[in-house]
Queue: 4 jobs
Job 1
Amino acid sequence: MTSAAALAVSLGAVLFSVLFCAWNWRKRRRELTETMEELERMIEAAERGEAPSALETGSGETLPSRLYAELQKLAAMYQAAEKASRRQKEEVQQTVSDISHQLRGPMAGLLMYQEMLRDENLDKETRLRCLDVMEEQIQKLDFLVKALVKLSRLESAMIRMNRKEENLFQC
């Protein structure tokens, strides 16, 4: 083989190698772009609270399939945390609603006894009984308002609960 033929074969081999590398690089880049776009769709689905769609990656050993598995774990944790948060908010709303309802009773009693005390013909003994009942209602209101304040502080994490076992009969 002549040197010109050897040079042509060498140049052909180099050209083929360059073209093959360029084709392979383009193919890998396209695969990576598709994988990243699929991961982006999965993340967007997880942000909306939806389960991410499966990646068609085949083996669980590839980077995209491992990322998909981790994303599924994150989505499940997010959904569990969101559910717990919703449940906790509902419990707080229910407690506030209960306390609000319990506040109305003493308030109605106070208003009723206030009206009775406005009656100038009321004897002294009845007036004193009305004042005693009003004092009891005020104490109930004070207890409920303090409970509401404690609940609010617990909710905002200003107070921390420390559990410990106690004998309630010895307290």
Job 2
Amino acid sequence: MIVIQELHQCDGELRLPQPSAAHEWDGQNWVFNADRKIALDLQEAERLCAKVDAAADNARNAMAGDPLKAMEYAQAAADAQAFSDAGYPKKEVPLSVAAWVAKGRTAKQAAEQILSKAEQLTEHLLTLRTLRLKAKAQIRAQAGKGKVDLARGAADDALIGIRALINGISS
């Protein structure tokens, strides 16, 4: 392709530059293709949703750690809840609770700390889920109306919200 004063040489002819990705050459002129525009907007929406999902996945990993560690924490929380529900019997301390008992910390205190930490994690994960799902709904709605800039704004707002959530947890 050779560019000659705002004209492009393509297939042996001179053409004006393609106005947008939604325009197609009909042999004489660039013609806007509304179906192509819709498809491009939806494709961009899915790219933005994937970006939000990836940020949420990274945040989730930062909050909960690897999946096996998350399972360990969930089991400890379930054991601590059962221990609490049973009235903290001293002769029936679950191993996952006993593992957190240390000098100066009773089994009851250990169970309460485990439950508190589990509640915080659950709240953070639900906040993250809400941010992610609301953003994806907004992105798709705006892109469906042809408002890709607003869809990008919704994605940017979600990414800022996810970063703020992580920064708030780590500080």
Job 3
Amino acid sequence: MLLESVQVNGINNIKITYYMDCNMRKDHGFTFIELLITTLIIGIVVAIAHVVGLETLKKIEAHVTTMRLESFLKSARTYALLHHQALTICGSQGVNCDNQWSTGILLLTDSNRNGVVDGSDRILEYIPLNLKAATLSWRGFGGSRLVIESFGTTFAGNGTFTYCPISHNPR
């Protein structure tokens, strides 16, 4: 609110204005530039958090898959020893061995070792993996399946499980 305005002539045209309230001019809201900069900063923070989050999820999936695989192999060996029965472990989508390790792991009695449930064969356990951020594969001397003999060891079954993140090329 303008209280008084005085103009002094003769001294270089100085104008003196008195306001009762010095906070007369109040800004309401933000300028477009302020909003743009704030949005840009929030976008950068969200992008960084997204990347970090994805990497964390990939690490968790790798750890969980490794632990599940190790537990599965130990229980299969224990079953073979306790029941004096050879077992076949293979990658599968649920019914027969099809080398789809990233989809799931199948444990079965396989008397003729053909990877197909036939005759007296039966499925003992199936663990769905459905890996999203990686692939899992088995390479061994015995082919694409791992056979645990009735005495708990593998015959020509030395090999390696490979867990490979999709974003990387295995070498």
Job 4
Amino acid sequence: MTELPHPNPLPSTSAGDNCFFALQPTSAAREAIAQFQNAAAAKHGFKSYRVAPANLHITLLHLSQAGPATASILRAACDAASSVAVAPFPLRFDRVKSCPHLSPQKPFVLCGQTDLGGAKEFQRLLGGALREAGVPAKRSSNPHLTLFWEPPPLVAEYAIPAIGWNAHEFV
């Protein structure tokens, strides 16, 4: 059984940084997602913020605290994360939708009805390890991958050809 490796080395932070644990798509999945972004932009007339391929990710947990994460919090978070051992798991996104959000821009996201159980379980295990280590963390919503940030109107959920990959590491 191959295990998901933990983040290394320790990241550096500064004021305003948003520290979180995430899963990233493989190169092939990034290419498929970028092609879908092109089609979605044309279909829906998206012109605001498109998430660049290098920044695509599935947020699992945010480190929640006031101010930037300290080196000791980051070290504790990375140490706790390294204690979570799971086998690689499949991720499959077969739906897209806009999500209500407090900001004026609304996220347009890939989501899935099936094959996200591994991500949810990993999110649960990682959250438990962080809590046990005393690291303040806030669970992200259901696993999803943000493609765009756009102003309303919101796009209702609809099915797409599945985009997927096997999660082998987290950051």
